[in-house]
Amino acid sequence: SSRFGTPEELKTLVDTAHGLGITVLMDLVHSHAAKNVDDGINMFDGTDHMYFHGGSKGDHSLWDSRLFNYNNWETLRFLLSNIRWWIEEYG
Q1: The pLDDT of residue 39
Q2: Cα 5–chain centre separation
Q3: H-helix or E-strand containing 90?
Q4: For residue 86, how many other CB atoms are within 10 A of its CB?
Q5: How does DSSP assign 5-30, residue by residue?
Q6: pLDDT digits (tens, 9 = 90+) for 38-54
Q7: Could you please report the per-residue DSSP string of 60-86?
């Protein structure tokens, strides 16, 4: 969240920790994503099932979010690509 600083400040924090010999663990939780269609990936292609389960199966009512469909090859590639970006950017 940007309320905890900018991406550059996070990089500085990680680099400082590494410089002090501290290992940084990044916890990426790819179990669900925001329903936001303006700047999120929900309905990215105009459907509700590009990366998520379609219909009500894709809704996480407790979190008001969308559930990824891990049986979908494109979903797995997208999520792995996202993990790779985090590692390359902050690792």
Answers
A1: 78
A2: 18
A3: helix 73-90
A4: 11
A5: --HHHHHHHHHHHHHTT---------
A6: 878 899 899 999 999 99
A7: ETTTTEEEB-TT-HHHHHHHHHHHHHH
Give CA–CA dist 91/20, Å, rounded: 15
Cα-based angle 26, 53, 46 (whole degrees, multiple of 5)? 100
Query: Do 74 and 64 meet the contact criterion of CB atoms below 8 Å apart?
Result: no
- Supply 32's token pair: 């669900």
pLDDT tops 90 at residue 80: yes
Which one, of 3, 13, 4, lies nearest residue 90 by Cα? 13
Q: Does the reported pTM lie above 0.70? A: yes
